[in-house]
Amino acid sequence: MDEVFKVDKKLIESKDLDVLMLRNDPSADLEERPWAQYAGIVFGQLAKRMECWC
């Protein structure tokens, strides 16, 4: 993992992507983290609205 953190980060814009795949299992969050149940959906909506994510 140390090698991953050493790589320079680059800002990308979602309008330049063909696909933005978000992985989320809402059933895994139901009891302990109910707030996280819709986190993937909300992130996707924000990325679409802002057309920018990093």
TrEMBL record:
This is Uncharacterized protein.
